[in-house]
Amino acid sequence: MNQIVEPSSSFTFPANFVWGVATSSFQIEGAANEDGKGPSIWDEFCRVPNAIADKSNGDVACDHYHRWEEDLNLIASLGVDAYRFSVSWPRVRPGGAEAWNEQGLAFYERLVDGLLECGIKPYLTLNHWDLPAALQAKGGWANRDTVHRFVEYACHVAKRMGDRVAAITTHNEPWVMANLGHETGDFAPGIKNRKIAMQASHHLLLSHGLAVQALQAQGCKSNLGIVLNLSPVVPATDTPEDKALAQLKDGKLVRWYMDPLFNKGYPQDVLAYLGEDAPKLQDGDLRDIAAPMDFLGVNYYSRKVASSNGDWNVHKGGLPFTDMGWEIYPEGLSELLLRLNRDYALPPIYITENGAAFKDAITDEKIHDIQRANFIARHIDAVGEVMAKGVSIKGYMVWSLLDNFEWASGYEKRFGIIHVDYATQKRTLKDSAHWYRDFLLRMKAGQGQTEILAGRV
Ligand code: FCB
User: Fold this and answer.
1) Domain total for the chain?
2) How far apart are CA 93 and CA 67, in angstroms?
3) Which residue from 163, 248, 278, 377 lies 20 to 30 Å from 36 (Cα-Cα)?
4) Is it the case that residue 234 has pLDDT exceeding 90?
5) pTM for this entry
6) Which residue from 172, 257, 399 has its CB within 8 A of the most atoms of ligand 1, so it is best to mutate?
């Protein structure tokens, strides 16, 4: 496979479609203890023996905190419309409550102003998982008090930058924070308790709804929304057991978040399954969670397969996998978006993350990551396909701008369209970055009608 597959849909993306690249604070910034930053739960989790595959941490990461101007130039060189980044809560409020850290706030203001000077729209995420450790010490997301600390944080950041950022996302992937962070314990804060996980998920949703309302009340002009990781869940076989499991997994992953956000309350089948582990709600919580928002962000990487005998790795179609062991299945993105559009009264959607980890080889300073370029092209195709069917999608962002700290996988998994040599911090555009830039140039030159330049391989 050496040729790049162009997006082939006959759909013409509108001129105001937002093309972007995405990162998050903990994964790229480094400067873990500088300029007044406090520790986050990920700083602490990295110190737990064997929590991170390569025993690494985020102390330096891509050193973006110091190299942000170079990175900004790289973003600009790609010709994208938008940059999705996150603010590190403990960098701007080290203890999670009380004092604000002016140096931290100034860092993000410089970044936002720098983006605007380059004509790039800032898409700001408030919580991409790096909760202040001081709040975890008080129970973290399982403690209802954290909800109010989050609303204060949202309001403060929006007062400083809300006039200049195109969008504010409250949370990135609450399912991951709740389930991987509190039920399986694979991610920070490393708790293994389903009851706590479900209470955390409720507080994440509640804090989203309350933050949206508080930001609107203070006159914030940015578009407000949340980002969910969503996938179609398919049964591994046609047995009733696998089908029932797929339905339950869909409930936990998709409906547990989509239903309350879109005013349907928590799904009854999941509540029944949880029994005693269902979260405690207070009057008005469901109304607050369903506060109308301006956009929904969808992160899509793969579909999920449900297997009741534990053999979830049944590959129906013999599909290829990424370096994460995730099936490459762009059709899942169209299936998912059509289903969401059918089942919910949606605001405009942004694909806020999509991309792939592959093992990259550097030859003569070049990285011929054709698989990654193909992955992106085929998913852009899927987006065009559903837009042609009337689904309102406003943007697409590649995960990720840079190779970075891939959570429990450490630095072993590379998602960047730009390679990072962690020993020297040298950045090198991979072929996928060149391809994305050239694709955007053609789109913007009015050649919106895309065509197959190379046959599907
Ligand atoms: C998503 C996360 C993002 C990155 C990608 C690969 O779940 O939001 O930070 O790790 O997966």
Assistant:
1) 1
2) 22
3) 163
4) yes
5) 0.96
6) 399
